[in-house]
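Entry 14. Structure prediction run on the chain below.
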Amino acid sequence: MKRRRVIIADSSQNLLEGIRGLLETIFDSVIMVADLDSLLDAATKIQADLAVLDISLGSKQCADAVRTIKEVSPDMKVLVMSMHDESTALEKAVSSGADGFVLKRSAAEHLIPAVEKILQGGTFYSTIQGN
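Output returned:
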């Protein structure tokens, strides 16, 4: 059964298109934005089930963005993605209150299972080197 809406935010158009292709299989509507201001605006106006965002999006800290999303839309789940395969990236996502973390290089394999688990009330965190 498809869910209603997901918002994806990344400054890379190619990555947005790839993620959209994956998420269209489980969501009725995929909203793409390219910057933090647009993400926060969409989170405020759109009753989405999930926001998927790049940890490096915009000048604000990831933690601030996740907290803001959770404040303006408390029921929205948040999945953080990163190209950084290091424990500090994972720690930022966890400490921000994100419901999950996926490495971009493993998105093709892990994104859908992560989304499914998060939307069922769980969490999903990609394995980081050395962890």
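The chain has a mean pLDDT of 88.
Filed with the rest of this week's runs.
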